[in-house]
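hi!! sorry for the late reply, been swamped w classes. u asked for the two structures so here they r. pasted raw, havent cleaned anything up. first the sequence of the first protein and right below it the tokens
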Amino acid sequence: MLAGSCWPGPVHAPQQDVLPGGSPVPLPSSRTGSGAGLTSLDDNPLALSLLEGADMVLDLTNEGFIHTRSLGKILQARTRMLFVADPPEVLARNLPAPGDKARVQAGAALLRAGRELRVTSPHGTDLVADLTDARPGFQCGIADDPGRWDHWPSTMVLCWPKTSSGRIVIAPGDILLPFKSHVRDAVTLVIESGYITEVQGSGGDARMLEMFFEDADDDEARFLSHMGWGLMKNADWFAMADQVSLQRSPSRHPRSLWTLAFTELWERFSFYGLQGVLSFYLLYSLSEGGLALDPSIAVSIVGAYGGAVHLAQILGAWAADRLVSPRQAVLQGAIIITLGHLSLAAIPGIAGLAVGLALIALGTGALKTNISSIVGMLYAEDRDRRDAGFSYFYMAINAGAALGPLLTGLAQTTWGFHAAFALAAVGMVGGLVQYSLKMRALPAESAVVKNPIDTRGAVRALGVVAGAGLVIALVWSTGLVNSGNLVHFVTGVVLFAAAAYFIVMLRSPAVSSEEKARVRGFLPLWIASTLYYGFLFQKFTAISVFIRDRVDLFVGGWEMPAAWLSVSSPLAVILLTPLVASLWTRMGSRQPITAVKYAIGLSVIGGAYLLMLLVTTVFPGQSVPAIAVLLILALAGSSEIFVGPIGLAIATRIAPERFKNQTVALMLLTLAGGSSISGLLGTLFANIPTGAYFAIVGLAPLVLALGLAKSAKRIDSLTN
């Protein structure tokens, strides 16, 4: 039986004033034990008979049956009752677990065996309670025995001592339940014979509490009714402390930030560790441990893989909104990624490549967007530290991106490609283990599916996935799509998805004319972002082929791992980001507008590739110095500072109110499109002279930068 706030028969509620908006004026604190809706139950025989005849009552009222005189009669009829009146995210965080009941029963046994309960704290609390006839009990969130009342979420031991004496010191950060807030200034309660006789403290909390007691006009409001301790780990002070905005200083961040940053570091370690050696695995000869694929096929696979990874992130974001919670999506994604790397390490040849890359793309899709959204949850009410928190998180991303190729590249040259893949798996396992141990301390919101799909919708979604899988299998089996043109297929999917997003937003009646103007202004920036990432991700496609064929990797008598050359890009971002961010801060309103920043980034990467053209001209054959390529890739990587974070910022700023998530998804599509375009450009590299190629990819960004600079003011007027 489900108990709500409406009962059969008349409800004799007292007259109450109404606010202008229609809401009743809150009752004074002397009335907040049980309101008219429940006390009227004592005079309603029909409602009582229904409750007494029920096997189970789920109490969803705000005040709870615990405050009614009729509760005893209902329980004597062997009716079980569970009181649930907390927000969904609190319930999700504090689900009853196996063993909870045994633990609280053991605690109640301790109280029954004791004579006295003494509570102390480092802040000065020292309270002694007489346990004679204290009626020890427990709550475990499960009403499993006939005639039992319980409360979810509660896992605690409690008793009702007749008398207690001493003092309770409520320290800053402690929770003051009547006000549902955290104490700013210490409050001391003096207890004599079970009653609060004095409230001490110089802050506002002490004064508010004293007024609370005075307003009650009832000495029983000062009575210390019950005592005990909680055993729900996720609800203890330390688990909740990360969410307490008052427990902060300019340099302190939630502990869960480091859990997420460490997880992301190892995910990026494994991802970029694989990216650093993947092209070489496809290109190197069989005697060198590679697959000896044609360069055009190799770069097509790498580009298609990168595009699929970022496309999967959109599906992962949708799944975490409709199917599983973000917290679980990250966990499951990490497991799938680990399985993907292990497949690459254990299964030889094309079969291992196909299975491994598919699993990694799927797992990354589940993990990547959701771990970022959980970081945002940590700062839901703390905008002052949000940017700093994301900066640390971004630093972890780049640390993983730099560390991964360094170690996997060394492993590949020492023990072979499969050892490198295994090392990437080890890194992901490290992130997975520490995340699984600490995930329950993440914000409660991260455990909630915000917009759960119904059964019909789930069946429909499953049908779409099955249909898409069938189509892919058919086009692959017929040869319509193969390893050589796979990147064309992925590029088409990306462009179709992006076009669909833009069309829906521009035609939706829910989007205002001003919002549509901003979306139109965003379109050229989206195109520029997509093309920019196509140029940047050359380091995983065409540049890899160039390194194999033209770069001298020997330093003295030692051969540098080829994957190490890609490390310079993230290192450049790590070193230069603080400088550029400081520059924008100092310039304030005088800093360049968004389109001009894009133009700067495109000019930098275009200049880097023109330098590569110069180097290939000066050093013919396989004699290009590795240090020259290292520095040029660092220059190319530094350009991301002017595009990557700027693009995400503009996307969140111009997003229509009804399409915020979709606009962020559009920015993810720039990465997917860029990865695919890098594969397309890579196939071009395999079929034209090297000098001509670097001239094209050097001049094209400069032309695009010039066009953006000329239209910058127009774009800025639309997006603001």
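now the second protein. again sequence first, tokens right under
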Amino acid sequence: MLGLDDVVPDVAARLAELTEMGRIETDSQARHVIYREMSELMVDNCGEMTVLQVRDSVAHRTNIGNIVPAAHAFTPEFRYMTKK
């Protein structure tokens, strides 16, 4: 992750773990704690970095489904999102 696998593998592993945790966490306060740790690890270990954009969907509510990320990875395709 972020090219850290060969340089600091323990940090890369923790970032991968936090990424998975953040993807499934629906509680906004818990997600905030996860992303804060991710940000601190990236700032401490990545040197200069750009704003990261990922193609992965992130859960924000428990009653939203059919999230389809756009090809350019900046915004989800909102017209297909449904409320359960």
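hope this helps!! also noticed smth abt the second:
Residues 56-84 form one domain.
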